Amino acid sequence: MVARAIFRTQRPAAVTAGLLGATGVGFWVTKSYFTNNVFAESPEPPTVFSSWFGQSLKLGSSEVVNHNTKRLRFEFPNEDARSGLVLTSSVLVITWPKGRMFPTVRPYTPVSSLDQRGAIDLLVKKYPDGKASTYLHSLSPGDTLYFAGSLKGYHWIPNKHPHITLIVGGAGITPMYQLIQGILHNPIDKTRITLVFGVNSDADVLFRKEFEELERQFGKERFSAVYTVSRPEEGSVFRNGYVTRELLEQISGRAEEESRVFVCGPPAMEKALLGGKTFGSGKGGVLEELGYRKDQVHQF
């Protein structure tokens, strides 16, 4: 009980460092704690996240999105501060679930705009045996969560690819949503985007309203979203089925020299697309059958 309370409320740095040292992240968290306190006295506060600076943030609001997903907004100490994250970054979250001897460390991709001031939003799907996700869903406004730092992902270069295809399953939508926002709201980036989003049920089609608004705002030639649902409800407006070779060939055709695909989804889906845990690590997957090379596929 005492140990878990450390991640809900601030405690002396020495106690925190001692407990986290056994997990292998002690150096990271301890350094971030002390460095953050030094910067706290600066007249110009730094951006909230970087490779080394970590801190506890207070949960400002918790919104139920569907039967297993919540949108959690964590407030920055300075309401004018920004996250400081770059496109396709994630944040490293440390939780201490009930009954666990050691904390869990998990990356989450923020779904709020990278320019948003004063807070950061995480979309968290709760899994039946998910220690971290269950803990995050248990938080109430006013509780705190420790963010150990940030992780940079794919280095996006505007206009490097004339068109990209994003293939997503379930909660894998979060890095894609961040990427879509970053591209479309960058006035110098003219990259065209096709999103193929496969889910289990109609309720799992996350960000549908946001994607429809982006289609209206930028036009479907610039951004288009295609949904496929494996277990649609009666009268569903969505396509019935999975993300298959036939569907991808119908939507994006076969690979061309400048084609680029980004993939993020559950293990079974990624294995079918990539042929293994990674592209080319097993038998030929759907993307290889469509003519894609390893250098044309990025797996989040």
> Which oligomerization state do the chains in this entry correspond to?
single chain
Poorly predicted sequence stretches spanning 5 or more consecutive residues: 1-42
Residues in helix, %: 25-40%
Strand content: 25-35%
Major beta sheet, strand line-up:
4-3-6-1-2-5
Instruction: Tell me the distance between the termini.
Output: 35 Å
H/E element sequence? HHHEEEEEHEEHEHEEHEHHE
Topology:
Elements: H1 2-5, H2 13-21, H3 26-40, E1 55-66, E2 69-75, E3 90-95, E4 104-108, E5 119-125, H4 131-138, E6 144-151, E7 163-169, H5 173-184, E8 192-199, H6 208-218, E9 223-229, E10 239-240, H7 245-252, E11 261-264, H8 267-274, H9 286-289, E12 297-299
Parallel strand pairs: 7-8, 7-11, 8-9, 9-10, 11-12
Antiparallel strand pairs: 1-2, 1-6, 2-5, 3-4, 3-6
Helix pairs in contact: 2-3
Structure, described:
With 300 residues, the protein is an alpha/beta fold. The protein is built from nine helices and twelve strands. It has helices at 2-5, 13-21, 26-40, 131-138, 173-184, 208-218, 245-252, 267-274, 286-289, and strands at residues 55-66, 69-75, 90-95, 104-108, 119-125, 144-151, 163-169, 192-199, 223-229, 239-240, 261-264, 297-299. The strands form two sheets. A six-stranded antiparallel sheet has the order 4-3-6-1-2-5. Strand 8, helix 6 (208-218) and strand 9 form a beta-alpha-beta unit. Helix 2 (13-21) packs antiparallel against helix 3 (26-40). The longest helix has 15 residues, at 26-40. The protein is globular. The two termini are 35 Å apart. Residues 1-42 have low confidence and may be disordered.
